[in-house]
Amino acid sequence: MKLRTGLLLGTAFLAGITTGPSIEHMAGPSLGRMFSSSAFAREIAADANNHSDTLRLLTLFGTVLDLVRAEYVEPVSDKDLINNALDGMVSGLDPHSSYMNEKQYKEMQIQISGKFGGLGVQVQEQNGHVRVVSPIDGTPASRAGLKPGDFITEVDGKSLEGMTLDQAVTKMRGDPGTKITLTIIRAKEPKPLKITMTREIVHVQVVRSELYDKVGYIRISEFDDDTETAMHAAYDKLRAKAGGKLAGLVLDLRLNPGGKLDQAISVSNDFIPEGEIVSIRGRHAENNRRWDAKGTDITNHLPIVVLIDGGSASASEIVAGALQDHRRAVLVGVKSFGKGSVQSLIPVPGNGAVRLTTARYYTPSGRSIQGLGIAPDIVVKESKDDDGIGYRESDLSHIITNIGGNKSKAPIRTDLPSIASSIPSAPPDNWPHFDIAKPATDFQLQQGLRVVRAMANLPPESYPLSQPPADKIASDKGTTEKPAIVPPSHPDHTPPERTPNDRVHH
Fold this sequence. Notes:
By secondary structure, this protein is of the alpha+beta class. The chain is built from 12 helices and 20 strands. The longest helix has 24 residues, at 48-71.
């Protein structure tokens, strides 16, 4: 079966993409009789010897539909029942497959355009609860401090218990300018958190960049239709800003839940001069494919660091895995999410679409990261109490299995820069609290910049970023105590912690 569909690699849809199924009564004959008289049923009946179990189960399905229509406490439309049954059939396969009715599919297409109303947070259903996959850069959710793994339990004081994901998302949506208060349960927080924010029209800016001395920084928040074009333009701008003397690059894929396969391939191609980028293998051999680099490296072999964390998933992991396998970049951070599957978006004419897992993908070394994730080359935690675990693919129910065997292990690297052994795995106790508006407080970014500077033979600095004065950072914390800023060459720096999970593993 040849699939002619878009290939997706995201962990979840944007909040607001899906809404509840439309309620529309459809009068008609017994659905049990309709099934037994359908063309599909007749085809099965004609070959009953080979399809007896299928025929029996279809009959059971029709019988249950008739029972619910007749006996449920309130009238339910046939369309609602069928939509729910279809969704259950597909979503029960794995966490990333789903059925979208026509209305849901249209809303998804609108929001993929990159402009929509809401909070700017990607959510996913997990065991009946609404879990945050990732806030989107520059949105109310990001500015308010929502984090991957947060569970949203209430909206404006009203519980979401018993609601579908569609219903919960609908409650979070509203007119731009209106306020909303979410109740959040967060790991290691003793009490639920109340977070108030203002809804707005969300413009998704998937790429942003900064120049820190001679080192470029590019942040990719997701992979949409124009990600590679925007990333390439950002790099050209950084190079021009550096007077053509850019010394290295930090590529930030943290909290990037994925997106389109072709964009992950195109971004990887911009940094890998030759060889395989990724391959996918599915049930049907004719759909198996391999993509190779086309001999272009827009940086002309500059040193690269890629930042990853537990929110780096799918398309992000393809890019990180390709650059790691080719020894083209050093990965800094904590283990990635571990989504090694590919979804196809298959339209059902006049009736929405099916988002179906159709393949696993493999990095250039032949490893599958499904349920395992990608281990960084240098472990750097966001905070001292960050265990680097969080929610990942392996925590979701009924995930597809990893069939990579020993090939799922990360290749051993012997080419890391000497500074790797002096990079601390966690910030010191008095490191300032992370503030998204103050890059100097981003410990993982600071260490990534240190690594790039060392690889580029640039002189070390206290910390590479142009940062606010230490007393200004400290005053924001309500104290005059200055944070400890230790030069890279300080002898007290300890090697990064290594754990059993530092092999290939949200």
